[in-house]
Specification:
The protein is mainly alpha-helical. About 65% of the residues lie in helices and about 0% in strands.
């Protein structure tokens, strides 16, 4: 045998348990892995969804503001009321709490936009 072959067999004998030690020791078993996103991935997905809701609200808000002077004063007051409600809710919000319901605010803006389109 050469040194290279001797080195491999010595290394292999160190890595491989002997036949007498196979049943005697404890066996490590890998834990099964789930096919789910890691926590960071879930957090990112939640942020993307939240960002989309905010974007939807502000897009509707911007459309109404673009036509601000064409709106009646009552509709302008409703828009300002929604804006103030959101401002107050964001002022009370803390990071450990769920975010405000952006869909509710976007729906309120959609209702106003639908009424202005009917005029």
């Amino acid at each position: 045998m050469t040194k290279e072959t001797t080195g491999r067999s010595t290394l292999a004998s160190k890595l491989r348990p002997s036949s007498s030690a196979i049943g005697a020791g404890t066996t490590k078993v890998r834990e099964p892995r789930m096919n789910t996103l890691p926590v960071a991935g879930l957090r990112k997905a939640g942020r993307r969804e939240s960002r989309a809701k905010r974007h939807d609200f502000y897009r509707r808000y911007d459309v109404l503001l673009a036509n601000w002077y064409l709106l009646t004063s009552r509709i302008q007051q409703e828009i300002l009321s929604i804006r103030q409600d959101l401002h107050d809710e964001l002022a009370r919000w803390r990071p450990h709490q769920p975010e405000p319901d952006w869909n509710a605010y976007a729906d309120r803006m959609s209702m106003i936009a639908a009424r202005t389109a009917l005029r």
